[in-house]
Amino acid sequence: MKNPRGVVVGLAGIIITAVFFLVPFAFIFLTASKDKAESALLQFSWPKNFVLLQNIQQAFAARDYLMVIAFINSVVLTVVSVAGMVIFAAMVAFIWQRRAGRVGVAINALVLTGLIVPPAIVPTIYVLQQIGLFKTMPGLILIEIAYGLPFCILLFRAFLAGVPRELDEAATVDGANSLQIFFQIIFPVLRSVMITVIILQSVFVYSDFQNPLYFLPSTPTIQVTVLNFSSQYLTQYNLLFATILLITIPPLIMFIFFNRKIVEGMAAGAVKG
Fold first, then answer.
1. In Å, how far from its chain's centre is CA 97?
2. What is the CATH number of the domain that holds 86?
């Protein structure tokens, strides 16, 4: 073994990661599997009566299936917002990478401003009210797209730095216009970084609590619904933790199955940038 110290550090890192991430998840799972009386003790122990499926069924059926409605709203919000981020960020990054000069400087200033300046809630609400999109799903979708664009643009631009300009020139010689060059030539090449953006932003939008609470308070989303459940089932920890378990599973599955794709996309953009 050439580097025993590195192996020890690596094992220590794995153990620490397991303690901070797996132990809380195990506690959620065990509490969600207990009955009302046993879950109220909030002990880290195996349940005497394993009633996870019953608790999940009750959590789904509570308040006229509010959890199902919230899940559908969150899925619609996530899919549409992430699709908008991917398309708009790729187009802006393509222009930024291919056209130097004033256009590139302006885009650079806007992207950096979006990354540095914190979101202003009150002015944003005022703007949405003026255009009639406050407390609407389209308004929240625009907010999610606007907040996620700067990071997505940087990822796409870093990857586009490694895409040869000869592809653009060859398509131009064949008579393709700008939209045809982008959607038929460039966009398919961005597949690896596109997967990274989709996974990261899907988890972010799906798990977002602040924006739906401020900009769409009348329509339930999955994270805001947890707040309602924590108020309604304050002493029924079995149902509360069953709800938390339900909303935790989709992001967890995405990271387990697409973790390698995320790393590959980030590394490709870093190397090519």
1. 25
2. 1.10.3720.10
Q: pLDDT digits over 74-120, tens only?
A: 999 999 999 999 999 999 999 888 877 777 788 888 888 888 888 88
The secondary structure element, H or E, covering residue 64 is helix 52-98
- Total count of domains within the chain: 1
Q: How far is CA 216 from the centre of its chain?
A: 18
C-beta of residue 163 within 8 angstroms of C-beta of residue 94? no
> Which residue is associated with the tokens 């924590």?
230
Find tokens 């200033």 and name the residue.
Answer: 109
3-state secondary structure of 40: coil
pTM of the model: 0.82
Residue 46 φ then ψ, to 5°: -70, 135
Alpha carbon separation from 13 to 3, 5, 6, 7, 256 (Å, rounded): 16, 12, 10, 10, 18
- The answer to whether residue 171 sits within a structural domain is yes
- The answer to whether 121 and 214 have CB atoms below 8 angstroms apart is yes
Which structure tokens are listed for 146?
A: 């606007």
235 inside domain: yes
pLDDT tens, residue by residue, 66-85: 888 999 999 999 999 999 99
Dihedral sign from CA coordinates of 191, 208, 249, 266: positive
260 lies in which domain range? 63-272
Residue 182 falls inside a structural domain? yes
User: Which residues fall within 8 angstroms of residue 102, CB to CB, at 6 or more apart?
Assistant: none
Residue carrying the six token digits 């967890």:
252
Within a domain: 53: no
Q: How far apart are CA 240 and CA 245, in angstroms?
A: 9
**What's at 246, amino acid-wise?**
L
